[in-house]
Amino acid sequence: MSHSKTFLIISRRPPYGSSHARDALDTALTTAVFEQPVAMLFQGDGVLQLLKGQEPAAVRQKNLGATLSALPMYDIENLYACADALAQRGLTQDDLILPVQPLDRAGIAALIRNHDVVLNF
Amino acid sequence: MSHSKTFLIISRRPPYGSSHARDALDTALTTAVFEQPVAMLFQGDGVLQLLKGQEPAAVRQKNLGATLSALPMYDIENLYACADALAQRGLTQDDLILPVQPLDRAGIAALIRNHDVVLNF
Amino acid sequence: MNFSLLVYAAPHSRQAAETAYRFAVAALAQGHGIHRVFFYGDGVHNGSALASPPQDECDLPARWQALAKEHELDLVVCIAAAVRRGVLDANEARRYEKPGHNLREGFELSGLGQLAEAAIHSDRLITFGA
Amino acid sequence: MNFSLLVYAAPHSRQAAETAYRFAVAALAQGHGIHRVFFYGDGVHNGSALASPPQDECDLPARWQALAKEHELDLVVCIAAAVRRGVLDANEARRYEKPGHNLREGFELSGLGQLAEAAIHSDRLITFGA
Amino acid sequence: MTLHTLNRPPSDRALLDDCIAALVADDTLLLLEDGVYCALAGLELPAGVRCVALAADVAARGIGDRLATGIEVVDDIGFVELCCHHSRVASWF
Amino acid sequence: MTLHTLNRPPSDRALLDDCIAALVADDTLLLLEDGVYCALAGLELPAGVRCVALAADVAARGIGDRLATGIEVVDDIGFVELCCHHSRVASWF
C-alpha cells in the first residue's frame, strides 16, 4: 500500500499521575484501527504501566493495565520494553500483565530507525 | 500582628519552559503587597531564573530576570539559592542578576522550619 | 482545624486535582473546616462549566460544585491565570468582548491576594501541584 | 515538503505551543505545506475562543486562527480530549446540554484518527510536547 | 515538624534529592500519586523521619506487595490527620 | 537518519539518558525550550551525531556565551530544514 506507514508509539510515563499513558494507548489503538502497523515501546517509568494488580477505582480512573492487556486483540503485537528500565525497577516478565520483548540500547535505536513515524508520550 | 504569617516561596523550575517560575514570582509579589514577610528560595533548575542576559522577546515572553531584579524594591530581600544547585551549574554570584544568599542542605531545612507557610512552584 | 487548598493542576491531565478533591471530602467528613479552595495555574480548568467527561469518568468540576453547595465552600479561581487560559465569568467576558463565558456556578474569579489571605487565615495550606 | 504538527501543550502553561506556532510560521515562509495541525491533550486549549491574555502577551489561539485563515490550514482539535477539558463546539454543547461553546472559529473538533491520517499523508510529523 | 508531600516518581531524581535534603527529625514524608513509586526502593531518610504512602495510589498502581520495609500506608483520613499533626505542609512536585 | 528534539533540562536525567541512548550516527539532536540547558555541559554523544540548539531559546535563557564547544545554534528556519533533511522526527519531552 502506498498510503501505509509504520508507527512506533513510545510510552515513557507512569500510569494515572498524568494523562500521557492513556493518550499513548488511545493513539496506538486508533492507529491500529486505521490498519497501520503499530509497535509500542515502554520506556523509563512507562514500564510501570505493565505491572499486574492495578486497582485504580479508588482514584476514579479506568484500569489502564486491563486495556493494555487487550492490545494483542487489536493486532498490536509488537510490544517492547526497555530492558534497563525493567531491571532498574526489579521487574521480570512474571510481574507484567502481558508479554513484552525486552530491548537493549542498540535494539531501541534500531526500532526507531525502522519505523516511519515515531510518537512519544 | 496576630494575622501575620511568614511565607517561603520555593521556586524550582527554569524560566520560560513553563509558567511555574512566573507563578512563583507573582505569588511572592502579591504576598509582599499583603505586607506579609516573604522569602524566596531558588532551588534546582530554579537558579537558572537568576542568570544575567535573558532576552525572551524571541519566544514572546516577558523578561523574568528583569522582574526578579526588582524584588528588593517590593521589600522581598530574603533571597536564597541552593548552593549545590549553583555549584552543579557552575554559577557564581557574578553570573546572577541580583545577590542571593547560598544555603547548604541544613540551611534549607532550617529555612523551611522557620516559616509558617511554604509554597512550592 | 481550618484548611485551605491550593489546586495547581487541571482535571484529566493530572491526578493532583482529584487528590485535592478527595482530601477536601475527607477533611469535611472529619468535621474540619475548609476556608477556601484556590485554583491557580492549570488548576483554573477545575472551574469549567463546559467540561464534559464520559459518564464513566470523574467529573471534577461538577463534584467541586456539588461539594461547595453542600458545605458552603469558597471556590476561588485566580482571575489572571483564568482569563489567559480562557476561563471567564460574565463580567470578564464583557470586559474582553468575548461571546460567552464558561466559569461554573459555585466558583468565583478573584485575585491572587485571595491565596495569601487564605494562607494567613487558615491553620494549614496544602498545595496539590503538577 | 508537507508537514503535520502534533501540539500536545497548552498556551501559557508550557512553551511548546508557542514553539509549534513559530515552526509553522517558519515552514510556511519557506514555501512548505502544512497538511494539518492536530491539538491533543492539553493542547486542545490552543483552540479556546475565550482565552484573553494581557495585550503585552502572546495570544496563541488568535495567532493560530489568523495563520489558518491566511494559509488555509487545517486546525483539528481532538474531540475526546477537548470535551473532557471543556472545549466544545456548538454541536458538542448541544449533545452535552451545555449552555455555551468556546471552540474558536478556524478550529474544528474531530477524532484521533485525524492524527493517524495526518501522519500517513505528511512527509513529516513533528510533536511539540509537554 | 513539617509534613512533606511528594507526587513524582523516583526518576525525577533532582526533586527527590531536594525533598530528602529538606527532611529533619520529626518530619513526615507522604508519598502520593506517582510519588508512591518512591516506596519501591528503600529511601535513605534522616533519623526520626517517618515515611508513609497514600493507600489509594498504592492500590491504583498495584504496588501494595512491593513496598520497602518501614513504609506505612495511610488512607485519605490519615492524610488529613497528618496535616493536623504537623505545623506546615510543603509539597514537592 | 532521525532528528531528535529534546525540550527538558538535564535535571530530567532519565529522559536525557534515554534520548542519548537512542542516537546513532547521522542522527541530529536538537535542543529546544528548557532542553537548551543541556548545552551548558558537554554531552557525551555517539560518533557522527550532530548537536544543535534553537537560537530563540538560547537567547531567552541568556546562555549564548555558555554553550559547550561543538554545539551549533540554528534559528527556526534551520529547525524546519533539519526536519526536511532527516527521515523522521522523534520528540523527547
Structural write-up:
- The complex is a heterohexamer, with two copies of chain A (about 120 residues), two copies of chain C (about 130 residues) and two copies of chain E (about 90 residues).
- Chain A has about 120 residues and is α/β, with parallel strands linked by helices.
- Chain A has a single domain (about 5-120), classed as DsrEFH-like (Hypothetical Protein Ychn, Chain: A).
- Chain A has helices at about 20-35, 65-70, 85-90, 105-115, and strands spanning about 5-10, 40, 80, 100-105, 115-120.
- In chain A, helix 3 (about 85-90) links the parallel strand 3 and strand 4.
- The two termini of chain A are about 25 Å apart.
- With about 130 residues, chain C is α/β, with parallel strands linked by helices.
- Chain C has a single domain (about 1-130), classed as DsrEFH-like (Hypothetical Protein Ychn, Chain: A, 3-Layer(aba) Sandwich), CATH 3.40.1260.
- Chain C contains five helices and five strands, in the order βαβαβααβαβ.
- Chain C has a five-stranded parallel β-sheet with strand order 4-3-2-1-5, sandwiched between helices.
- In chain C, helix 1 (about 15-30) runs parallel beside helix 2 (about 60-70).
- Chain E has one domain: DsrEFH-like (Hypothetical Protein Ychn, Chain: A, 3-Layer(aba) Sandwich), CATH 3.40.1260.
- Chain E is of the alpha/beta class and about 90 residues long.
- In chain E, strand 3 (about 50-55), helix 2 (about 55-60) and strand 4 (about 70-75) form a beta-alpha-beta unit.
- Chain E has a five-stranded parallel β-sheet.
- The two termini of chain E are about 20 Å apart.
- The mean pLDDT of chain E is about 95.
- Chains in contact: A-C, A-D, A-E, A-F, B-C, B-D, B-E, B-F, C-D, C-E, D-F, E-F.
- The interface of C and D includes residues 51 and 98 of C.
- Chains C, D: InterPro entries: DsrEFH-like (IPR027396), Sulphur_relay_DsrE/F-like (IPR003787), Sulphur_relay_TusD/DsrE (IPR017463).
- Chains C, D: One of its GO terms (biological process) is tRNA wobble position uridine thiolation.
- Chains C, D: It is found in: Cytoplasm.
- Chains C, D: Pfam families: DsrE (PF02635).
- Chains C, D: One of its GO terms (cellular component) is sulfurtransferase complex.
| CATH-assigned fold name of chain E | Hypothetical Protein Ychn, Chain: A
Helix % of chain C is 25-40%
Strand order of the largest sheet of chain E: 4-3-2-1-5
Largest sheet of chain E: 5 strands, parallel
Which CATH C-level class of chain E is it? Answer: Alpha Beta
Number of helices of chain C: 5
What letter string, H or E per element, gives the SSE order of chain C? EHEHEHHEHE
Shape of chain C: globular
Helix-strand pattern of chain E: EHEEHEHE
Structurally, the number of domains of chain E stands at: 1
Mean pLDDT of chain C: 98
Largest interface: C-D, 30 and 30 residues
The percentage of residues in β strands of chain C lies in 15-25%
Pfam family, one (chains A, B): DsrE
Organism (chains A, B): Marinobacterium nitratireducens
Family (chains A, B): Belongs to the DsrF/TusC family.
Protein name (chains A, B): Sulfurtransferase TusC
